[in-house]
Amino acid sequence: MRVVMFGYQTWGHRTLQALLDSEHDVVLVVTHPKSEHAYEKIWSDSVADLAEEHGVPVVIRNRPDDEELFARLKEADPDIIVANNWRTWIPPHIYNLPRHGTLNIHDSLLPKYAGFSPLIWALVNGESEVGVTAHMMDEVLDAGDIVQQHAIPVGPTDTTTDLFHKTVDLIAPVTIDALDRIASGTAEFTRQDRSLASFFHKRAEEDIRIDWNWPADVLERLVRAQSAPYPSAFTFHRGKRLEVLSAVVSEGRYGGTPGRIFYREGEGVVIVAGADARTGRNHGLAITRVRTEDGRELPATEYFTSMGGYLTGRP
Predict the structure, then answer these.
(1) Which DSSP string do the residues of 201-258 spell out, in sequence order?
(2) What residues does the Formyl transferase C-terminal domain cover (predicted)?
(3) What is the pTM of this model?
(4) 297 — phi, psi (to 5°)?
(5) Fewer Cβ in 10 A, N or C end of the chain?
(6) pLDDT tens digits for range 288-300
């Protein structure tokens, strides 16, 4: 098939590479300009550079809603559009233009975790598996019929970085299998169960601020979810920002006030956690490694030279 590809960052780059390696013909690529947004500077392999290396025409757009782009698309005469990590709305006159419509590749097990940062949200929420879905685009974001989907389990120590590397390797087989099924007329289109759908927003500073009223197991997953190169989860100690780089759920149960710097346990320092911590039935969060406001990284047992005092959500 003649394919136009809409994509951005490493997800788009992997999709374009899969298309270039396939029997399909990539006739045009549309991608976003480079961004300074913290999350968009991560996994930022250039779709434009890859396309140009292979002699594929490239159009740069923030939004695909102008007449010049529409004319370029009609001239390209695609059988299908393939999109991955396109960050803005694609209007119906574009996604319905090709004979086979538009196939979108999304890094979640739709209908769950439509929208943005699905791996981080899924890990924070304690999902047992994540994956990649190829679905047809319609008027509702990430809601069209599913063509192909593949899941992988989430391990007990997996970080979002681990899950990224596992799921990004699924892009090529999921994309090409879906395309081949569509081209051959053997694709089965599965309607999404909208009663199971969830939609998540982009991650921002407020989403990585530690709330010590959360249970320790949720906080431990938040720390793993915000693994490097993502911005680290943070709290405040004596009015200064303190990033938590690694932590585990404590073995013991610790009662008191959430945020209390309480006890050395193993290689960590336990912080009281959970809204009902006063009952003494809660595990705490044992912080093992931190980064200070001036950029120093050190074991928590070296940073917390004495017990007592509190970690807080605000200075």
Answers:
(1) PPP-GGGGB--TTS-HHHHHHHHHHT-TTSPPPEEEETTEEEEEEEEEEEEEE--SST
(2) 205-306
(3) 0.94
(4) -110, 135
(5) C
(6) 999 999 999 999 9
